[in-house]
Amino acid sequence: MEKICVAVRVRPPVSLETSGGVFWKVEDNRVSLHRQHDTPVSGTSYAFDHVFEETCSNARVYELLTKDIIHAAVEGFNGTVFAYGQTSSGKTFTMNGSADNPGVISLGVKDIFDAIQMMSNREFLVRVSYMEIYNEEINDLLAVENQKLQIHESLEHGVFVAGLREEIVNSAEQVLKLIESGEVNRHFGETNMNVRSSRSHTIFRMVIESKGKDNDSSSTDAIRVSVLNLVDLAGSERIAKTGADGVRLKEGKHINKSLMALGNVINKLSDGVKQRGHIPYRDSKLTRILQPALGGNAKTSIICTIAPEEDHIEETKGTLQFASRAKRITNCVQVNEILTDAALLKRQKLEIEELRRKLQGSHAGVLEQEILKLRNDMLKYELEREKLQLELEEERRSRKERDQCVREQQMRLQNHNSLVTSSGGNGSHSEEQNSKRQSFCEECSDSNGICQGGAFRTPCSKAAPNAFVVKRSNYSRLPEYSPLPDTFSNVADEDTWLKMNKGYIADLDSLQMTPATKVQSFPLNDGTPGCSNENYRDVQKLKRQLENVTEEKNEFQRKYSEEKILNARLTGEISELRQEVLVIREIPRRLYESVVSSKDFYEDLLCSMKSFAADGESSTAKKLVSISEIGSSLFSTLETNFLMAMDGDKSFSNNDSLVREQCKEEESTCWKEKLSSELNTIKEKYHGLEKDLDLNNKFLETSKEMYDSLEREFRLLQEERDSLLNKVSESSQTLTMVTDQKENVLKDYNTEVEKKKNLEEEIKQFSAAFACRQKSLVSFHSDLKSKIEKLRAQNPVSVPKSRG
Ligand code: ADP
Ligand code: MG
Description:
The protein is an alpha+beta fold and about 800 residues long.
């Protein structure tokens, strides 16, 4: 609640002549009537917010009484400043001023635009209108064609004058020009008291709309609308003093009537809130238009101007009493904010965001931890995968070394064999030799099961699982491409061994490396729902992350199965190689045995041949002896070689290959176990991850549901608001209707009262006339009586005596 600010301003006297009677004395904020010898007249001292003496300038009046209201109007408060007082007391001078002493209106207009310039965070729209109330009719001073305008009231605009021109302005100069042009249309007239007497009340109105600029984050989109009224009232006047007649008299009557209505409103308002009854705002257009300024939502200042002359004492007293009553009025002032649909939506959206933030605050920590955990797991998994890859590389390298070792052994064997074939290649092949070899092969087949279908096969040609031999030559299985030698002597060429080896060479390059998987890292902060302004987007983001993780998991599972297959292949290969190594290790021993048996056979043969050449002297016998010597030396060389080979092989096997083989075997078993256990761990971790992700999904679903329900609530609230607004507008319409009806009834009532008064007057007149007539009749009657008496006395009539 805010009190109306009231000030009194004393006009300088028109003439310096003093009547010598009484005068108005100004002391601080008090004005009192004093006698010539400076004694105060009792009951004539009045205190106000400000009292301005004669010498005071308009600028000071503006500074102390109006400036705050002007600035508040820019901030969104309604404001009204009006000048009240008898005619020629200086109202127009105070409001409009002169060239060298600008009035409140021009000072205020300049100040408004300065204040607008200072408020860089808001954008403004200023509209001005200028109207007068002349003979209780509202005329537009900015558009002469707009006459007799009507007052309306609506929920949105409050009390307003329909059809009034409003000019959008953006500078003080523009406004002052408009005021100037409006002044031309104002009604002035000459009276005894003022050569240029205002015959109408003028209301200069500024509507200031403002909105926070878009780039201002603190703005709420609410539009502030304030109305500033600067009112110059026409002065109350005594007809006798102004000497008004004709038009001036009519004007004066209207002026007085509306000022009386203003006085009544002030009287009622000054009674205090509790005692207040009906406030008769509708008694005049002036009070109706100033309704918000009087006891409503506006900061209001009243400048009461008084004339110091002694002959205006009664009017001045009236003005000061009016001012004293006005001082008691309190207004309820507030910023006028209009919430547009967009502003309301924005405000509600902010509230929902806030609620959502609070709601999610409880889950944010958990989700963040979950994400961190997932991220850690992923990193661990990445490391494990790299470790596995390294181990796989190691395994491949060791396998290559093993292959190399096997190849070396094969080469060594090849060397032994070539040694054997080269030593036996000189002799011719007899049927017996072939049969001997046949029996040897059969023996081999029985003991090892390697030779099949009567054909001699090297251990290299043993069927191996296709799964392992990636590029095994097909021709190795065909008879025409068989690397098997028909005769033992044909085996000793290098090409054949090469062809035989071909069947076992695995193209390791064709074994594809597992492609490195890109592990997508989680974003550091974006994933946390609390940081996000849009929950739905967060949900989508987390969903995408979930999909990525699932894809990755599938990829790892695929790799895991690939690794498994590879492991199985490796195990198969190792066992095959082991068998092959065993077979290869057997070869020198078998060769040695065959050499021993061949030697026996050869010796038998020589013995039988020697028996044919018994003399020992013949050339045949000599030849036989030399053959026998060569043979024995050959066989002994072979035996030595094979024994050496066997020993070397044994020592090699024992000291190197076997040890390495065993080591590798153990190593690979160890690796296998390690790999499978690690893979099991990874699998378990994946299951854990899957569970975590499921949990996250559930959280996200819940928050999404919450979001949906909030949205639903918001929509319901909006609908409720709309229906309430509809109801309000309906009831306001009904209220307007009822008010109009009430007005009509009141008018009728007033007419009836008027009629009753007239009738009463007539009755009074009639009864007076009647009484008068009665009186005259009575006097006439008495006159007549006296006359009759007189006549009787003059002419006494003898009443004949009755006979008898
Ligand atoms: P009102 O509008 O109250 O009828 P005006 O403002 O027209 O009266 O004033 C009447 C005359 O008195 C004008 O000539 C005006 O210049 C003069 N006047 C009024 N107040 C002052 C003042 N404070 N200082 C100087 N002259 C004044
Ligand atoms: Mg005036």
